[in-house]
């Protein structure tokens, strides 16, 4: 299986493309998470959701892929997840987290794709963690390596506590990426799923969509949260899991009935004309590996 993706193609698909008409599309099929406040910042839209146990702050970056950087603000500190695809995004997210006046106790990386690790240099000096499997995938995989990769430490615990919040970390293999983690903050009724779910965006074809759907079904029966934070697009609610399962099932039928990427993209645009992350349409060749 060829898993090579050039930096140029991946960035074009997920990153620094035009802002498109993302703003115009907002809300079309987005399930609103409870009481979210939206504000425009320099390189992103910042969506904050307040719960009694803590707040989440989601940077939805102003690029074609609408990649997210997540911040959980607990009583005594903050936890960041992912770095976006370039240092300008992560620098802004870090400055915001620091402005909260609490220490950043951990940065977690959800998976090895460069649209989530490319901003890592702006997190230099912070405690950065991911599983040993994901760390190995970043070190040995086909994607560009962040300059400060040596700062990333392996963390394979399934229950951790940062910033005064108890977190559960679940690891999944062979779904959208070779390995990815999700973070559940039960006290906040919030789970960070990153690229297992895209909200109102085209999905990357992933590694193994049959398994990916199984993972989402497992999460649907296991998770009991109010707020779902995703890897591309705006915060949503647990119902987004069903939307993702439906999308992937329908997408699989489209792949099976298409002779190649061109036909597939035509069908996708017809079925889902107004999704974000238009650049991911350029990566549909992956569905035919
Ligand atoms: Zn992504």
How would you classify the quaternary structure?
Answer: single chain
Range of helix content: 25-40%
CATH level 4 superfamily:
Ribonuclease Z/Hydroxyacylglutathione hydrolase-like
Number of helices: 8
CATH class: Alpha Beta
Rg, Cα atoms, Å: 17 Å
Which percent range describes the beta-strand content? 25-35%
Assign the CATH topology: Metallo-beta-lactamase, Chain A
Q: Quickly give the structural class.
A: alpha/beta
What does this structure look like?
It is a single chain. The strands form two sheets. An eight-stranded mixed sheet has the order 1-2-3-4-5-6-7-8. The chain contains eight helices and 13 strands. Helix 6 (209-222) runs antiparallel to helix 7 (239-256). Strand 7 (128-130), helix 5 and strand 8 form a beta-alpha-beta unit. It has helices at residues 7-14, 22-25, 87-99, 114-117, 132-140, 209-222, 239-256, 261-271, and strands at residues 36-40, 44-51, 54-61, 68-73, 78-81, 104-108, 128-130, 152-154, 159-162, 165-173, 179-185, 190-198, 227-232. It has a single domain (7-20, 33-288), classed as Ribonuclease Z/Hydroxyacylglutathione hydrolase-like (Metallo-beta-lactamase, Chain A). It binds zinc ion. Residues 14, 67, 113, 115-116, 195, 231-232 line the site of zinc ion (ZN).
């Amino acid at each position: 299986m060829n898993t090579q993706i050039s930096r140029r193609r991946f960035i074009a698909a997920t990153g620094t493309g035009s802002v498109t008409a993302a703003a115009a599309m907002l809300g079309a099929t987005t399930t609103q998470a409870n009481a979210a406040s939206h504000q425009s910042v320099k390189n992103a839209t910042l969506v904050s959701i307040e719960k009694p146990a803590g707040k989440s702050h989601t940077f939805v970056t102003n690029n074609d892929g609408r990649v997210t950087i997540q911040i959980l603000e607990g009583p005594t500190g903050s936890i960041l997840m992912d770095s976006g695809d370039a240092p300008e995004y992560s620098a802004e997210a870090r400055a915001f987290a620091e402005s909260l006046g609490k220490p950043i106790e951990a940065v977690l990386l959800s998976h090895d794709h460069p649209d989530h690790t490319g901003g890592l240099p702006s997190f230099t000096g912070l405690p950065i963690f991911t599983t040993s499997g994901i760390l190995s995938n970043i070190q040995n995989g086909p994607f560009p390596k962040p300059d400060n990769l040596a700062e990333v430490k392996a963390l394979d615990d399934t229950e951790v506590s940062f910033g005064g919040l108890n977190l559960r970390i679940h690891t999944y293999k062979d779904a959208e990426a070779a390995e990815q983690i999700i973070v559940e903050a039960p006290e906040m009724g919030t789970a960070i799923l990153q690229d297992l779910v895209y909200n109102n965006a085209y999905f990357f074809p992933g590694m193994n969509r049959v398994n990916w759907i199984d993972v989402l079904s497992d999460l649907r029966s296991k998770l009991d949260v109010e707020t779902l934070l995703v890897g591309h697009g705006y915060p949503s609610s647990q119902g987004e899991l069903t939307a993702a399962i439906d999308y992937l099932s329908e997408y699989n039928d489209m792949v099976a009935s298409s002779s190649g990427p061109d036909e597939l993209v035509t069908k996708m645009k017809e079925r889902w004309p107004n999704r974000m992350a238009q650049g991911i349409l350029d990566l549909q060749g992956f569905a035919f590996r």
